[in-house]
Each structure stands twice: as C-alpha cells, then as structure tokens.
C-alpha cells in the first residue's frame, strides 16, 4: 500500500508566534484523534521550520517541510535558502514547483529539475507540484501540460530517486478559488499521472507513488476526493491554516 499523506501548505501566512500556536494545536489534535497510518506534513515558511521540528519531535505522524529551496548547493545567492539548510534543521520535505512559484517567480520545468536533484541530494523528499491553468484546460491541453511537467521536471531521475518523490496535482484554476476539481476530474488526471509513471519506470513504481490532490480541498469535499482510487491524499492551502479543518481532512484516512 502506498503512503497516504495530508500536507498543509501555509504559503506566506502566519508570523512566528501564530505559526507555533497553530502547529501546537495540530500536534495535540493529531495525537488525540488520528488513528490511521497517514502521514501529516506541515510546510511552513522558513522562519518556523526549526521550532516546528522541535515541537513535533516524538510525533512520528507529523513531519515538517519547506515550500521552496534553491537549486545550488550554496553560494552567493543573497536571500535564498539551500536544501542543506532546510535539512539541517530537521525538516524532511520540500514543496517544489508550486504553481505560485511557476507563475510569480518564473520557475520553469528545467529549473525545477535542478531543484529536485539538489533537494534529493540533501535527503529532502520533494512534493513536486504539477497542474494546468484554466486556459490550458479550456484548450484541451491539460494532459499535454501534465505530461511535459513530468517529463521535463522529474523523469530524468533514476528509480531510487523517483521513489522518494511525492507528486501533487494542483489544477491552477482550483487553487484558492473555492472551485475544486470534481472527484472525477481529479481521478482522471491522477490516473493519467500514474500511467505516465508506469510507462517511464514500472507499474510497481507507479503503484508505490503517492499522488496528492490540491486546490480548494476542505473537510467537506476531502472524503469524496480521497476515496478515488488514484488520489492518495491532499496538499491543503487555506484549510491548513485552521487546525480543526486541517485535522478533519487528515482524519479522512482514519
Ligand atoms: P487552497 O487549498 O487554498 O486552494 O490551496 C491549494 C494549494 O495551493 C496548496 O499548495
């Protein structure tokens, strides 16, 4: 059975104290209420990472991740954060290729391939995001977009490396809009992603890859989305900023 994961992406929200307080609530609720084998990942701004790792120590169900990492190992890149730095505070995951990074910071598949290599070389598990815009879907190009994001972003990896990835399908039109993909639309793309992985690597690797859905996921729509055969959890934005909502989504896998 592949791992079920519910990951929160706080984006650029919460000051230091607010972040610690939200995370403490999540830890307590997870300890009290989560009974399954699901993995919870909280992806915070960099400033919280070290403290969250400390607060989450001993709670195996909760891991901490960053939302970006630079492609270089180190060097004269003022204002950037390296994968090694993130790993050094004990974080285990990093979101790469989020559509907001692609859209606002010009991140390309080529750059993301390098970021993925550097993250893996530093023992971070990438949560690699892919997804089409509304315009691309309107033109019927969504399968092509997904195909090239995979081919150019992560299909250069060898099998051992690829095994460490989590893929997140986030249709850009569903992010922060309140419009979620229907469970059938999401399942269709997840199935396509798994087929592409099987064709590139093997059916065994495809079957073992966790593929998350992201985009206006909430406690009400999560049960139906997560019940789809190829949907292995969620990458949660807005609802991850409320402990009750986030943990209720996590509990779909109880
Ligand atoms: P929302 O859940 O706020 O739509 O955001 C999804 C997302 O971008 C998670 O990475």
Overview of the molecule:
With 254 residues, the protein is α/β, with parallel strands linked by helices. It has one domain (5-253): TIM Barrel (Alpha-Beta Barrel), CATH 3.20.20. It has helices at 16-33, 46-55, 83-88, 99-105, 109-121, 134-138, 142-153, 159-162, 183-200, 203-208, 222-226, 243-250; strands at 5-9, 39-43, 62-66, 93-96, 125-130, 166-169, 211-214, 233-236. The chain has an eight-stranded parallel β-barrel with strand order 1-2-3-4-5-6-7-8, surrounded by six helices. It is globular and about 45 Å long. The two termini are 15 Å apart. Bound molecules: 1,3-dihydroxyacetonephosphate. Residues 9, 98, 170, 175-176, 214-217, 235-239 line the site of 1,3-dihydroxyacetonephosphate (13P).
If you average the pLDDT, what whole number results?
97
CATH superfamily assignment? Aldolase class I
SSE topology string: EHEHEHEHHEHHHEHHEHEH
The counted number of beta strands is 8
Which stretches are poorly predicted, pLDDT < 50 over at least 5 residues? none
CATH class, named Alpha Beta
Give the second-level CATH assignment, the architecture.
Alpha-Beta Barrel
Number of domains: 1
Shape: globular
Q: What is the radius of gyration? A: 17 Å
Q: In percent, how much strand structure appears in the residues?
A: 5-15%
Bound molecules: 1,3-dihydroxyacetonephosphate
Note the total helix count: 12
Enter the CATH topology name.
Answer: TIM Barrel
Biggest β-sheet: strands ordered side by side in the sheet:
1-2-3-4-5-6-7-8
Gap from first CA to last CA? 15 Å
């Amino acid at each position: 059975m592949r791992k079920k994961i519910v990951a929160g992406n706080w984006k650029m929200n919460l000051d230091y104290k607010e972040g610690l307080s939200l995370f403490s609530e999540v830890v307590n609720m997870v300890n009290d209420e989560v009974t399954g084998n699901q993995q919870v990942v909280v992806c915070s701004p960099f400033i919280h990472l070290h403290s969250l790792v400390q607060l989450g120590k001993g709670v195996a169900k909760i891991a901490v991740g960053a939302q970006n990492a630079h492609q270089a190992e180190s060097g004269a890149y003022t204002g950037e954060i390296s994968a090694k730095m993130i790993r050094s505070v004990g974080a285990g995951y990093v979101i790469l290729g989020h559509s907001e990074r692609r859209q606002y910071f010009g991140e390309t598949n080529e750059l993301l391939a390098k970021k993925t290599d550097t993250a893996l070389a530093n023992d971070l598990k990438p949560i690699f995001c892919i997804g089409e815009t509304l315009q691309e879907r309107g033109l019927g190009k969504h399968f092509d977009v997904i195909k090239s994001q995979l081919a150019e972003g992560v299909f250069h990896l060898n099998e051992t490396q690829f095994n460490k990835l989590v893929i997140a399908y986030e249709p850009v039109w569903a992010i922060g809009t309140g419009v979620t993909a229907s469970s059938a639309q999401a399942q269709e793309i997840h199935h396509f992603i798994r087929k592409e992985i099987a064709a590139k690597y093997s059916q065994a690797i495809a079957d073992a890859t966790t593929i998350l859905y992201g985009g206006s996921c909430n406690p009400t729509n999560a049960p139906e989305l997560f019940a789809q055969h190829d949907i292995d959890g969620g990458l949660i934005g807005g609802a991850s900023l409320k402990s009750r909502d986030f943990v209720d989504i996590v509990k779909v896998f109880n």
